[in-house]
């Protein structure tokens, strides 16, 4: 790592002290609730670096999730900033939180990630040169120079951790929470990261970090210690008073013993029958309540944990700027993704030639009408599986990134939603267009411009529908489940398409289902584009062809002539409906993680 790096991130304008009182958090566990935080209180002061210590399962990460505003459901209690209860959106703008495991977009480099974070989290008034300087400083401080232009999927665990910390540092927040920032780093790198965090605290920020078994050298960098045990506070105070306080409670630390290891050893022995530790917890709670009495009036005014007053803009840049930046980032990630780009386009072309040669010259031959109708269904099946299944396999990872960034106030749900649709749309359309033109010409369909455009229109709408369908499945279901959900849910729509069972042969109970089958509108639209639209006769290579008249083909399929625009309308309604479902699915994922 680079030494003596000059940091240009500015000082904060005023001190920011965070007080939390009587925080409780419960989760539903089968038929009973499990309480992870139990009326825990404390104070983190500006200008001081605080370490949160505690044994595994004590509630350290849960406490950070709650204090950062990432967890709000099932939480009671109050958070006060400088003796003022503030709105949730305003609070999230003050806070940066780096979780223990941070998902990153695999095809974006650290330098690009930091630039996008700077563009999204810093106001537009800050010039581009200033953003570049800030990004370069963060890269130098966190030792990311060697991997700055390497895609995230090729980074080591430690490099990914440092990158995730850097993405929060670029916005210069007033309150910073870190969950085990040194995991994956060697001792030298760990010391430099904590040293930088100490510098940030000394510049007036409130910096809090969960730290797992720090060395004595690393522990010396911290000013204050907050010890959590079983969802309660065992000790809060300065590092210098740590051993004295434990000694007064009857716990003597051996000479030359790591103070963090000593505290963890005591805390891990906790149970409610341990009188000394229980008394120490009670004394710690009483001391904190006494210190907080001056803020009681402000705390009492809040009746909900981090309530939302709806009057504060939570994003530093406009919606359009968010949309533009996200569209650029998504497009870059898509271009670099072989599954979404080269393989998808190559797959459309390869399968197009394969199907085209198999169904060679069946389009204008009345003796091969049944084969041509089978080709039309093959069109739809390939389009839906090629476009839905591709995004199913790539979107779940993106969803994890989306949830984290949205909660960190990077952008709104709607900006991400529209950028995702716009960025992927051209590549999806290019694949479908290549596939349709190849198969259309090789299979010998009628070469009329308006008929080709009508055929392409149905294929394009069906591909659009398929992609949104796949995005919904990738959003709502884990990657292990969604590849099964999509094919299974497509089968009923195929059954009522009119190919396997003709409409008039269905039982009365099933007939209304044809009206809500998107495969029906796609299949009927392709039939209308192929045999409707004033087409009267087909060529015939045999002595007699029963289906030479196109009206006989439509009658055989129980289809009414001139329904093409009805089918376009049906697919369009489905596309609008699925877009609405996708938007609310994204919002549901956010709510699910609160």
Question: What do these coordinates show?
Answer:
- The chain contains 20 helices and nine strands.
- The chain is of the alpha/beta class.
- Helix 3 crosses helix 4.
- The chain is elongated and about 110 Å long.
- It starts with 17 loop residues before the first strand and ends with a helix.
- The N terminus is likely disordered.
The strands making up the biggest β-sheet line up spatially as: 5-6-7-3-8-9
Q: If helices are DSSP runs of H or I spanning 4 or more residues, what is the number of helices?
A: 20
Mean pLDDT: 83
Distance between the termini: 37 Å
CA-based shape? elongated
The topology string of helices and strands comes to EEEHEHEHHHEHEHEEHHHHHHHHHHHHH
What share of the residues lie within helices? 40-55%
Structure at a glance:
By secondary structure, the protein is an alpha/beta fold.
Task: Lay out the secondary structure.
Elements lengths: L17 E12 L2 E13 L4 E5 L6 H8 L7 E7 L6 H7 E4 L11 H12 L6 H14 L15 H13 L5 E5 L7 H16 L3 E5 L5 H4 L4 E6 L2 E7 L3 H7 L10 H9 L7 H18 L3 H5 L18 H18 L5 H17 L10 H39 L5 H30 L6 H28 L5 H14 L22 H14 L18 H7 L7 H29 L2
Parallel strand pairs: 3-7, 3-8, 5-6, 6-7
Antiparallel strand pairs: 1-2, 1-4, 8-9
Helix pairs in contact: 3-4, 3-5, 12-15, 13-14, 13-15, 14-15, 14-16, 14-17, 14-18, 15-16, 16-17, 16-18, 16-20, 18-20
């Amino acid at each position: 790592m680079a030494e003596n790096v000059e940091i240009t991130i500015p000082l904060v304008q005023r001190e920011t002290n965070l007080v939390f009182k009587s925080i409780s958090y419960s989760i539903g566990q089968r038929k009973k609730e499990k309480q992870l935080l139990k009326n825990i209180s404390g104070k983190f002061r500006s200008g001081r670096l605080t370490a949160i210590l505690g044994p595994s399962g004590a509630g350290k990460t849960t406490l950070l999730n709650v204090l950062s505003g990432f967890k709000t459901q099932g939480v009671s209690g109050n958070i006060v900033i400088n003796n003022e209860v503030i709105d949730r959106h305003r609070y999230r703008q003050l806070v940066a939180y780096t979780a223990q495991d941070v998902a990153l977009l695999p095809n974006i480099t650290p330098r690009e990630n930091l630039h996008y974070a700077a563009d999204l989290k810093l106001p537009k008034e800050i010039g581009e040169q200033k953003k570049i300087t800030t990004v370069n400083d963060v890269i130098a401080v966190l030792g990311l120079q060697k991997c700055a232009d390497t895609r995230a999927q090729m980074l080591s665990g430690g490099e990914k951790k440092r990158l995730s910390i850097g993405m929060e540092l670029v916005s210069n927040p007033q309150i910073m929470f870190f969950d085990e920032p040194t995991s994956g780093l060697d001792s030298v790198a760990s010391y430099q990261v904590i040293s930088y965090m100490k510098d940030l605290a000394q510049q007036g920020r409130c910096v809090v970090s969960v730290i797992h078994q720090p060395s004595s050298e690393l522990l010396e960098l911290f000013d204050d210690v907050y010890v959590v045990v079983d969802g309660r506070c065992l000790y809060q105070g300065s590092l210098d008073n740590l051993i004295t306080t434990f000694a007064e409670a009857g716990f003597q630390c051996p000479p030359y013993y790591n103070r963090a290891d000593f505290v963890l050893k005591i805390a891990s022995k906790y149970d409610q029958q341990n009188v000394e530790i229980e008394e120490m917890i009670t004394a710690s709670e009483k001391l904190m309540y006494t210190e907080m009495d001056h803020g009681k009036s402000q705390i009492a005014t809040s009746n909900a944990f981090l309530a939302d007053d709806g009057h504060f803009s939570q994003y530093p840049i406009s919606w359009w700027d968010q949309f533009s930046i996200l569209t650029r980032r998504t497009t870059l990630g898509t271009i670099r993704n072989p599954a979404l780009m080269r393989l998808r386009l190559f797959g459309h072309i390869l399968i197009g030639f394969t199907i085209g040669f198999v169904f060679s010259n069946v389009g204008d031959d009345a003796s091969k009408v049944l084969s041509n109708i089978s080709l039309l269904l093959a069109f739809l099946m390939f389009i839906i599986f090629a476009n839905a299944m591709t995004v199913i396999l790539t979107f779940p990872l993106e969803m994890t990134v989306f949830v984290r960034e949205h909660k960190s106030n990077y952008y709104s749900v709607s900006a991400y939603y529209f950028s995702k649709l716009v960025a992927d749309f051209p590549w999806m359309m290019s694949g479908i267009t290549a596939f349709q033109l190849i198969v259309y010409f090789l299979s010998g369909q009628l070469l009329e411009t308006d008929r080709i455009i009508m055929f392409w229109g149905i294929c394009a709408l069906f591909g659009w529908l398929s992609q949104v369908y796949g995005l919904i499945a990738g959003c709502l279901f884990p990657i292990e489940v969604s590849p099964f959900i999509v094919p299974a849910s497509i089968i009923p729509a195929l059954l009522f398409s009119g190919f396997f069972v003709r409409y008039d042969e269905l039982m009365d109970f099933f007939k209304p289902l044809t009206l809500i089958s998107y495969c029906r509108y796609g299949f009927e639209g392709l039939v209308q584009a192929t045999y409707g639209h004033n087409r009267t006769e087909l060529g015939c290579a045999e002595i007699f062809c029963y289906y030479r008249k196109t009206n006989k083909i439509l009658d055989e399929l129980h289809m009414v002539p001139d329904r093409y625009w009805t089918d376009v309308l049906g697919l369009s309604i489905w596309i609008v409906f699925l877009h609405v479902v996708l938007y609310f699915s994204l919002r549901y994922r956010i709510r699910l993680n609160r």
